[in-house]
Each structure stands twice: as structure tokens, then as C-alpha cells.
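A further point concerns the way the authors explain their paired sequence and structure data. Nothing conveys this as quickly as seeing an actual entry. An entry of this sort, consisting of the sequence and the corresponding C-alpha cells, reads as follows:
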Amino acid sequence: MEQKIKQDICIGANIRAVRKARGIGQTELVRLLQLEGVDITREALVKIERGCQHIQASQLRGIRDALHTTYNELLAGL
């Protein structure tokens, strides 16, 4: 079972901010993640960005890579 990361530091809001700053839509990000083998749906991404769903470690790693950013930016914000 993969570890989930509790969102007590607004990871979802940071992901959304970085994604928007890169000019990438949710559907495009999900497509990029799925091409890399990350199991995620658009609905799951929406819930993660809203802070309603915990993010899996593999999803966070995939988002980091797809957005060409760092963990620091995703965890601490822009």
C-alpha cells in the first residue's frame, strides 16, 4: 500500500499555483501524468488541489516531474 501525504500545509493549493504559473490545465497535467504511468484522474487532481483528498507519494513525484518544479516549491509554495 502506497503512503499518502496528509495535506496540512496546503500542498494542493501550491500544486494549483505552480500548474497555473506554467500555463498547464488540469486535463493536460493528468494526461502527462498518465503517460508517465501515474495513476490519477482529473477528478482526483481536482480533489487534491482543493485539499479534499490526500496525495500519494507517486502522484506528488509525478506532478513534480511533469511541472518541472521542486518538492520545495510544491510543499512551501511559490
Summary: The radius of gyration is 11 Å. The first strand starts at residue 4 and ends at 5. Helices lie at 11-21, 26-35, 42-50, 57-66, 71-76. The mean pLDDT is 90.
